[in-house]
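Bench notes, afternoon.
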Amino acid sequence: MLNHPSRAQPDHPLPHAPRRRFGGAALAAAFSVFSLAIALHEAHGPHAQQSDELPITQAYADDVEQTPDDTAMPTSPVANGDLIRRGQYLARAADCAACHTADKSRPFAGGLPISTPFGTIVTPNITPDPETGIGRWTDADFMRAMHEGIGKSGERLYPAFPYTAYTRVTEQDVLAIRAYLNTLQPIHFTPPANSLKFPFNQRWLMVFWNLFNFTEGRFVPDPQKSAEWNRGAYLVEGLAHCEACHTPRNFMQGLQSGARLSGAVQAGWHAFNITPDKLSGVGAWSDAELRAYLATGAAPGRANAAGPMGEVVANSTQYLTPVDLRSIVVYLRSVPPVNGGDTRGRHDWGTPADDVTGLRGTAVKGVNGAQLFVANCASCHNWSGQGVGASAPGAYPSLIHNSTVGASDANNLALVILRGVNRTTAHADVMMPAFGGHLDDEQIAALTNYVTKQFGNPQATISAGQVAKLRTLQ
């Protein structure tokens, strides 16, 4: 659970405790436990500041051809164009726009609701508007939010804002992002307030959450590893914060360090295992397939990005340089493989269907998955399920050898049917209509179960009641 730098202030903001100082003796007895918690955190947390001149963190935008867009163009002359361009690249790598844009007409103005087990957190406005955004934040304020999870007035931020990962980002990269954000169009907009249950609406409790789930400190390159590995680690562990979605969480919603990148569920969507396990993870993928997936959202015969991952590709990873894409793949190959109990890879399922011949001339009776498929899906995915267009950029993907269809649970497939796909990259505009508006829960369940049985993992089924719950998720 987490909030971003510009959320509303708590009723009683906590002062920022100076590092390496213990104030327990000076505090009243009622705050003794609180002060002890801070003392333990400061005594055991890493404080060594790493040099911002390390080769791995330099010139992320060097030789990058920037693609203009209408949501991120400077609105005034800039003194340091290189710094701004670098900040734009880094902000894209961090996927800032995805969480801080609820309405595309108000880019970076926040307002996006994020569901957590403790309630709903609404992302803040990070445009340079002085009243409702971060226009009055100093560089030091911004740095403290990114590195320590503490807002301008000393309020503790919630970990829906991934400061637990951003703490690894170097000072110079944080300042580059800040410089870029300063060039955005200021938007006067106050997002709705968070809706968190007591006691989770008490920000000061984040002190204790941090004790167990947060270690402050910048990324330290491993001298025993290659430059590519270190670059990939810096991106995956820090700036791109891949673990925020792909690592399961404990009961406090902190990351489970023993199951890093082994997959997790976020708002109903399953962020799959991306460790190098050959069955549960991406160990069977080639390096080229992994790079293509990150750059385009499609790896024919493996997967097609939809839902939150489709947004990550569209907003973030498609803009990464070939060097950074290679570095991410190198690093992912090195993490410990985690097997989730799968006996067959997600992309290994499926055979072509021939139900269309048997359905000809058959009266429609009740809810029939095969009939629903032929009526709603066959025009794009072919009645056989083999897709249309092979591996061309604008192809309609095959449902055979498809990770979404072959997954051990049917949630992602049902959500794709409910909400459709809209993924725009330099490679192709991919659009699948949402069927949630004209198919009811029973029909969505029947269609999903037909697709998994025929083209995917037949053990993955879903009920109408489960579909109804998915409809309600943000």
